[in-house]
Amino acid sequence: MKSNDPKNALREAERALAGALARERDNEWQLAELAHELRTPLSAMLTGSEVIAGEHLGPLKESYRNQAQVVHTAAQQLLAICDRILSEAMAREKGETRSIIKEVNAASMVKDVHQLFAGMAEKRNVKFSASLPPNFPILHTDPVKLHQVLSNVVSNAIKFTPSRGKVTISGNYDSKKDAAIIVVADQGRGMSAMELMNVMQPFVQVDDAAQHGDSGTGLGLAISARLMKELGGRLEVRSQEGVGTVVALHIPPKAGKSKNHGT
After folding, report:
1. Residue 92: which H helix or E strand, with range?
2. How many Å apart are CA 231 and CA 225, to the nearest integer?
3. In this predicted structure, what is the pLDDT of residue 228?
4. Per-residue DSSP letters for 24-58?
5. With CB atoms counted within 10 Å of each terminal CB, which end of the chain scores lower, N or C?
6. 3 state DSSP class of 183
7. Is the confidence at residue 255, as pLDDT, over 70?
8. Which one, of 190, 106, 103, lies nearest residue 149 by Cα?
9. Integer CA distances (angstroms), 104 to 55, 132, 155, 254, in order
10. Of 191, 185, 158, 200, the residue nearest 246 (C-alpha)
């Protein structure tokens, strides 16, 4: 039988809170441990891809050099994510917050993401194009988080677009509202209103959506939505069954401009 004593109730609440905080801390450090252990194989991938792309072991066809560069870029991005996770975990342990804000050339990042996923699109016979308008601004944001979001969204778009379909990255800038938007559009089967309501929930997958036998965890959009919120922006999804899906990344161009806490 539970006690009605307010003091006992307070102690129970304190114990429950302490337990929840301990579990959260354990989860954070498990993630940090994973990130730490991934750094060694990723460093090996970086070294190996540099050797291949630089033709240190002999001449290669250009297509092989290009693929080695794709591997190198992907490993660099994964290593940057691991470093961010470790940095944030150590900062939280010290009771600090850490935000890495830099000038980001969005056009250059979009070009890098296009190069990273061009092979994936070609293998699936999906037409993949990317371009931003000349007036798209230089952003002040966390480049690792933004690259992670854009990569997740593009990967999903290609997976869910059938052969001979199209995926595009485009953008627009509203100078009056100082709003920068990067848009990823696909020609997948689209989603119903019910699916659209749930698609950004963790571990929720749209049934039979993948067009090329791909499998996933249903975490990509959930992670991306959280990261966009951390960047001071938002992720918007619009979809129509039988037509496709459009994901818009609303990015504040001057986020953190006056609060650069790292390099």
Report:
1. helix 62-93
2. 10
3. 92
4. HHHHHHHHHHHHHHHHHHHHHHHHHHHHHHTTTTS
5. N
6. strand
7. no
8. 106
9. 31, 14, 21, 11
10. 185
The residue among 244, 79, 91 whose CA lies nearest residue 156 is: 244
pLDDT digits 0-9 by tens, 109-126: 999 999 989 988 998 999
Q: Are strands 127-130 and 166-174 parallel, antiparallel or unpaired?
A: parallel
Helix (H) or strand (E) holding 171: strand 166-174
Nearest to 182 by CA among 220, 222, 137, 216: 137
188: amino acid identity, one letter: G
Amino acid identity of 49? Answer: S
Instruction: Read off the pLDDT of residues 42-62 as tens digits, 9 standing for 90 and up.
Output: 888 888 888 888 888 888 888
Picking from 193, 220, 221, 218, the residue whose alpha carbon sits closest to that of residue 207 is: 218
As a whole number, mean pLDDT of residues 125-152 equals 93
Q: Is 148 in contact with 116 (CB distance < 8 Å)?
A: no
* pLDDT over 70 (residue 229): yes
- Angstrom distance (rounded) from CA 14 to CA 182: 45
102-251 adopts what CATH topology? Heat Shock Protein 90 (3.30.565)
Q: Give the start-to-end residue ranges of the domains of the chain.
A: 6-93, 102-251
How far apart are the C-alpha atoms of 88 and 230, rounded to whole Å? 13
